[in-house]
Write a structure and sequence with these properties.
The protein is of the alpha+beta class and 425 residues long. The chain has helices spanning 53-71, 107-111, 142-148, 159-181, 229-232, 239-258, 278-290, 306-317, 335-342, 358-361, 363-366, 380-391, 396-424; strands at 9-15, 19-24, 30-35, 38-41, 46-49, 77-80, 85-89, 91-93, 96-103, 120-130, 139-140, 151-152, 155-156, 185-197, 203-206, 214-218, 267-272, 295-299, 323-328, 347-349, 375-376.
Length: 425
């Protein structure tokens, strides 16, 4: 990994309590985010140096942003540059902290007397706070945010933009919540910030997400908390206490790397009745690839060679890898029913419908004998998505890509509607 000294730094654009942001000469539209060895609480009322914190925070943020980007979520992160710095797209920051809560604790209890600690929010509880240190970051409503009329990088923050940030905050939280669950760790709450990319004019997740940004309770037990709350709760800051805080931060930085790894294996096996169906099957394989799912194509006919079909089935059942079978057969579909009747693994029919006999042929995939449970999906892309939804139940990386795809579709519709309304006015 390269050293910060190899980059040509321009002017310092901003400096906060825990990081500095520099312009990058020679990389238009990019900045360097340099972390500091400083930890603060209560708007820097408490402030201490913690040797190594910059590297720990940078490792955590880089892993989190890589997880989110690999899923397909839009962030400002470009690449990790050094142990203590990363390169990001230059953004004009929207001065709002978006807070997403799964469990009631902390300041929420003070502002909402009567709510018991541990109350679980379903759906998630959303709050926003205006970044204003002098006034202790007051809580804002959506109406206040809309009334503020912020204009950043040429984009006015209106209803469309607020809805995008709100929807994105929930998706980001849920992706990270499911990822942390693989480590038997509860994501209690989290704060994030958005910016407007000065080049693309898009709203993206920006700033950082590190151990200052969330509450993490291993095994759902607050007494084992590993986040910055431990530092906030210190009655006295001693060298021994700071070492304990540092160990917690290191624990998180080590485990966050594991979030990039799949905790489950899975695959899709597409069985086609003949090579004339290859083009249809390739669409399934391509769509599976977009979710990070390995996809194998095989040729077999349940009518002409049922023994070989069952041999192929046994081949994939024998290695213990979770498998979804997709049966692609035109005319009379024997593959799906034969497979479904002989395996406990899920089977999806995805027949290549033709304009001549398609209306008749489809019934061989829809009307099954009793005791068979194969589903039928006509679109190759939708068949892959259905397979991803099954495998995503036990694979947080596949689930994250599904969640990001849903969000991106929603955002594109929201923006299309905004554009149409502007053209109509």
């Amino acid at each position: 990994m390269s050293n910060t000294a190899e980059l040509k730094l321009g002017q310092k654009l901003n400096e906060g309590k825990t990081k500095q942001i520099f312009e990058l000469v020679g990389e238009p539209g990019h900045v360097l985010v340099q972390s500091k060895d400083q930890i603060t609480a209560g708007n820097a009322v408490r402030k201490d140096q913690m040797e190594g914190k910059a590297a720990i925070a940078n490792k955590t943020t880089s892993c989190v942003f890589k997880l989110l980007q690999d899923a397909g979520l839009k962030t400002a992160f470009v690449r990790q540059h050094s142990e203590t710095a990363f390169v990001a797209s230059r953004c004009e920051m929207i001065p709002i902290e978006w807070v997403c809560r799964r469990i009631a604790t902390g300041s929420f209890l003070k502002r909402n007397p009567g709510v018991k600690e541990g109350y679980r929010f379903t759906p998630l509880k959303m709050e926003m706070f205006f970044k204003d240190d002098a006034n202790n970051d007051p809580q804002w409503s959506e109406e206040q945010l809309l009334a503020a009329g912020f204009e950043l990088a040429g984009l006015t923050i209106g209803r469309c933009e607020v809805d995008i940030m709100s929807k994105s905050t929930v998706a980001i939280f849920e992706v990270l919540e499911k990822a942390w669950a693989t480590q038997d760790c509860t994501l209690v709450d989290m704060k994030i910030e958005f910016g407007v990319n000065v080049t693309t004019k898009e709203i993206v997740l920006a700033d950082v997400i590190d151990n200052d940004s969330w509450r993490l309770w291993p095994a759902g037990d607050r007494s084992q908390q590993k986040d910055k709350q431990v530092y906030r709760d210190l009655k006295e800051v001693t060298p021994e206490a700071m070492q304990m805080v540092k160990r917690n931060f290191e624990w998180v930085a080590e485990r966050v790397k594991l979030l990039l790894e799949s905790q489950a294996r899975g695959r899709v096996v597409v069985l086609m009745g003949s090579t004339s169906d290859v083009a249809h099957c390739e669409k399934i394989r391509k769509a599976c690839g977009s979710y990070g799912i390995p996809c194998h194509l095989r040729v077999t006919s349940a009518h002409k060679g049922p023994d070989e079909t069952l041999r192929i089935k046994a081949e994939y059942e024998g290695d213990g890898v979770p498998t979804i079978f997709v049966a692609v057969a035109g005319r009379s579909n024997g593959l799906g029913p034969v497979m479904s009747g002989n395996t406990a693994y899920p089977v999806i029919n995805c027949p290549p419908i033709t304009p001549d006999w398609g209306a008749q042929d489809i019934w061989s995939s829809l009307r099954m004998p009793s005791g068979l449970g194969c589903s039928t999906v006509l679109s190759p892309e939708a068949a892959a998505q259905f397979a991803a939804q099954i495998l995503g139940l036990n694979d947080h990386l596949i689930w994250a890509r599904l969640k990001a795809s849903m969000l991106n579709t929603w955002v594109s519709l929201k923006q299309a509607d905004k554009k149409l309304q502007e053209c109509s006015l």
